[in-house]
Write a structure and sequence with these properties.
Radius of gyration of chain A: 19 Å
Number of domains of chain A: 2
Oligomer: homodimer
Largest interface: A-B, 55 and 56 residues
Order of helices and strands of chain A: HHHHHHHHHH
Structural class of chain A: mainly alpha
DNA sequence: GATGAAAGTCTACAGGTGTAGATAAAATGA
DNA sequence: TCATTTTATCTACACCTGTAGACTTTCATC
């Protein structure tokens, strides 16, 4: 046998380097959390993925909870489809839809933070950490960029739709979505997103 | 203090009744799974909620996994907002939106099956059970009731939106949604659902 | 009232969890 | 080359998990 099941550059007996080890643990944790959620991913498993021992994880991050918080913060900070500059695009609805469909098809990383959060939402503490990050990292940013009434609600609904699609397509693997023609989904979703972005119609009229 | 924390009719030393005990366990399990998910809810906890011992749970249901499957089947079978007869309504979009908003506000039971599934989606086995139920209990029913092209995809997207709102409003507790004016959310959501129901616009035009 | 079956509980096990403290190995300084 | 500090591991501990087998209590029927 070669080794255990190491990740990336962790297969060679990495030279003692605190920063690199920390990064390796963070990367392994990110992957493990995305796959199994907060409760499902064990510290020993995360450590093994980074090529170290479980105890080192706590030594670097204090506790599993703090490690999770840092992973969430890191993944949420990465640029996603929901960046402010994207909000300037004219056909933003289609952009969001297309990116979302593509990401949920390939399981790409830009929305990994969201996925981790969804997988971990059953844990109360993890949900709390995730909500904080979503609220400050996405919802408020989007809301301030949207014009018109009910901006916070509209922003939150956009995030809800993203979350819903991720749940059904990536987590549940609902065949109708998982095997759907990507372009067809984009055509269906684009006007929905656009509608929430514009916030037109009877949003003001009572 | 009265007793421990029993449920419903389990506070009085229930007369020995297999059917009633089974039902009590099922009810307790339903509540526990909805709150903590498959992994989060323990057999002992479920049993305590029904006023029995953990071993009795396995005696009645074989295993935790089988108990979960039965809970899911029961909650999914209950009538929800997504029933076929509702699909005949003219302003169905608004009906769905209003019901969804109301249910996610009060935490009412009609969508509890969905909530359980979302909380349990991190467990692979639980997700598999849930997907099967969703697919056959909702998605296919809806799809066959929808007219026009891409019916399966549109049905799945409606379910995705329901799931997304539940996640953000009930599980994450995103303030912008949790504290939003119900009627405002309905006004925002109704046209989105209606659009997926009608399936009009450029769905056919390429 | 005794008997047999049903309903429920007790004890226990093997495995897993996160984490604390002491210990070993490697790198860096003198 | 020796000493010191950093980096990483070993051992261990409480606790919790789902579940199996033996045991005790209650009920219904003869």
């Amino acid at each position: 046998m070669t080794k255990a099941t190491p990740i990336d550059a962790a297969d060679r007996p990495r030279r003692r380097d605190a920063a690199a080890t920390r990064a390796a643990i963070l990367a392994s944790a990110r992957r493990a959390f995305a796959e199994a959620g907060y409760d499902g991913a064990g510290v020993r498993e995360i450590a093994a993925g980074a090529g170290v021992t479980a105890m080192l994880v706590n030594r670097y991050f204090g506790s599993k909870e703090k490690l999770f918080a840092e992973v969430i913060a890191a993944t949420m900070a990465a640029p996603t489809i929901l960046t402010p500059q994207n909000l300037a695009s004219p056909r933003l609805g289609e952009t969001i839809a297309r990116t979302l469909v593509e990401i949920t098809r390939t399981g790409d990383t830009p929305l990994e933070g969201f996925l981790i959060m969804l997988h971990s939402a059953s844990s109360k503490r993890a949900a709390e950490i995730g909500r904080e990050q979503i609220e400050h990292g996405h919802q408020k940013t989007m809301a301030s960029a949207l014009r018109g009434a009910l901006a916070p609600e509209r922003a939150a609904l956009i995030l809800s739709m993203v979350a819903g699609i991720q749940v059904m397509r990536q987590m549940m693997g609902l065949p109708a979505l998982a095997k759907a023609e990507p372009e067809a989904l984009v055509k269906l979703l684009a006007p929905l997103f656009q509608q929430l972005i514009d916030g037109d119609t009877e949003a003001s009229g009572r």
